[in-house]
Amino acid sequence: MTTDRRDFIKRAAIAAATASGIGGSPVLAQAGAAQPSATAASPVAPTSGPQGAAPPSPRALDPALLRALGDAILPELLGDAGRVRAIGSFSTWLARYTPVAEEMHGYGDAEITYTPSDPAPGWNAQLSGLDLLARRKHRRGFARLGVPLRREIVRTQLARVSGSRLPSDPLAASHVAVALLAHWAASSEATDLAYQARIMKGNCRVLAETSRAPLPLATSGEA
Amino acid sequence: MTAPRVLEADICIVGSGITAALMAEKLAAERSATILVIEAGGHSTPLRERALRRARWMNYGETPWPNDHLDDQNALGTAYGFSPSMNVGGLALHWGGVTPRYSPEDFKLRTMYGVGDDWPISYDDLDPFYQEAEERMGISGEQGPPEMDPRGKPFPMPALPLSQNLQRLREWTGKAGIAMWSQPSAKNSVPYQGRAACQRCDTCYPICPTGAKYSPDFSFDALVRAGRIRLVTDTLVRRLHADARTGRITHATANATKQPEQVVTIRAKSFVLAAGFTWTPHLLLLSAGGAFPEGIANRSGLVGKYLCGHRNVGAQIRLPMKLFPGVNAQHSLVSKQFMRPGALSKYIRHDLRVWESSFGQEPRLRDDSGTLLLGDALMDDWRARTVKGTARVRAYYDVLPARESELTLDASAKNAWGDPMPRLQFRDAPESIALRAWTEQTIRELFQRMARAGDGEIISSASAAGDIGQEHPGGGCRMGNDPATSVVDRDGRSHDHENLFIAGAPTNVTASCCNGTLTFAALGLMTAARVGEQFTARSPRNP
Fold first, then answer.
1. Quick check: ipTM above 0.85?
2. Interatomic CA distance for residues B478 and B402, integer angstroms
3. What pTM value is reported for the model?
């Protein structure tokens, strides 16, 4: 296949994914496709992080609903600031995602594969689905519910998500709630909190310190 | 119509992977000869862009080596172990930098154990070239027990330090009666040859962002800058042409991949094929015609035969010790205890490696009862499972190749010029077929014994899948003393063509039970020494 042909297939796949809104909410499909309650036009401000060099894209999730979701499902021990960071990092990660980019073909693997289509339309639809359910059951938007009620709605939506493991790759998540958790859990900060030590997984670090046990976290509270 | 292009040199090296890089370095340093390196692909990610490419890979799984292959050059069949990488640096751009040597037994399996075939060289013959490869690449290593880990000289760099995780795991394997030490690696433990020390970024495979891991493009960049070689990229060598009377290779023909109609003719006194276990025999078979109807270098009919590799058995063992996975995740312990078993009543040889692991400690969406974990409940569940540690263990074991373990031309898939693509088929020799189940069971019993020694338990076990291919593959142009049973001699020179040399992986008779790259490179250096004999030594008067 020539490079031109590959580029054509890539462009066509992006167009098809955008048109179909893949991963769309089954709730919306049943309820007649209500629109998101807040505009999706303004991306969440990027936060710092090793996201790479790709230019920002207009891809974004409804910031109010995403924040409401994150506050409901991310660990409380992160604190408000920690959850904001985690949500911002997820948004930045999504904004810089490039669908149908060539994936690593592995050491000794003949197959060339490509990254999945844009997940944002489906994830936005799922956020809208959470909002729609909140309005139907509680006569208030999802973001205006308390955390227990928000969790109840999330549990309802994730009942059909099978498996016990969080995917290591957010792009493998079938629901935006799982994607947000997976993205946070894959971070170096989350691992450090779990092991309560400054491992700094995935960061380049001084070789000489390899031999010592990682330092304990200063506190086991906020990240 | 694009004008034909003619390239001339004393030595033409086809391919620019790790074997080619070290050969070019050696020949350029030692001989007064013009050296031409021909690469079918182009340049991939330069060092200055590797940190950003690493970030894209970590975040999104994007390849750090975009466009490192030609879309219509790929292998068919049981292609696990094969990579389509075609670029300056070859597959070794994304190697893990793990550099064990084969053991002395590997070179005399028939004599010692009555299985497989002996090589025409011994470990001692190869030792100086192992050393040279280690010094040229920069290997950090720990001398294992001398009776298990023989070597003529010390490693060029101190070992990568063991993490606290590996220190604790080494205490555990000691209780199981297994001696283990720091895995030799092409990663700088100290600054070396202008490159920085490793910063344990944990992405050696697939990309080192700092240059601490040896990469063949470093050699090529330096050689080109110094004017010691000519590197021609984007040029696919498609045929070798030999004189019907003398057998000498007169020239090669190629096509420019970005101008497919442009024919490139390459003339050289000596040709070296360093294009790996797939593309080297592929080119020889494609070159069939005239006085050589079975292909170049193929009077024995063995070009493409005896592809070799190995398989593995692995397990995850949970142990009652706190470990911190992620400290230096790609570095491991290694043992050659089972590669050097002494006398055997039934043949089995394997290596053994141990890594830190986070298996079984990953964050979960649901607990064992199926309850969804949200908020602090997720973190509480995660923390509770970090109290114990996990060791990943793996053993590569010997697989002896059948003659029918082979590469053939498959006319059902052709490239832009109509050349049939290679089809790979790995087949075990009868003795390996007979031993396979017992070998894997014996290794699993070893893992059980290791688990018991640490009051641990095996929480996962797996064997390399079926017949999808083999790991660290080589062969296809095996070396030997007898032209009837081998393709090249002990130095990699074709039995049929006095100025044709085959370097590295394809010349392997068997593939040992450990990573092969260092051995491929050492064999290439041995071949380079022979190639160089035809040319004047460099000196101050003869630079």
1. yes
2. 12
3. 0.91
